[in-house]
Amino acid sequence: xxxxxxxxxxxxxxxxxxxxxxxxxxxxxxxxxxxxxxxxxxxxxxxxxxxxxxxxxxxxxxxxxxxx
Length: 68
What we know:
Largest sheet: 2 strands, antiparallel
Distance between the termini: 13 Å
Shape: globular
Order of helices and strands: HEEH
Mean pLDDT: 77
Low-confidence stretches: none
Helix content: 25-40%
Number of helices: 2
Structural class: mainly alpha
């Protein structure tokens, strides 16, 4: 639970305002741009297409450590 709360707080700090402001979950960002979940990421195929269509970028996230 702590990881979820920390991740939510970090997203709010990273995307505080503007068109890509973090307003809650679920939220999906590709290359720093907030996807419209109703238009771009509603299905697995839509999400895959958004990732494939995104320009090359720098990886700035890492997987969460697994908790036993």
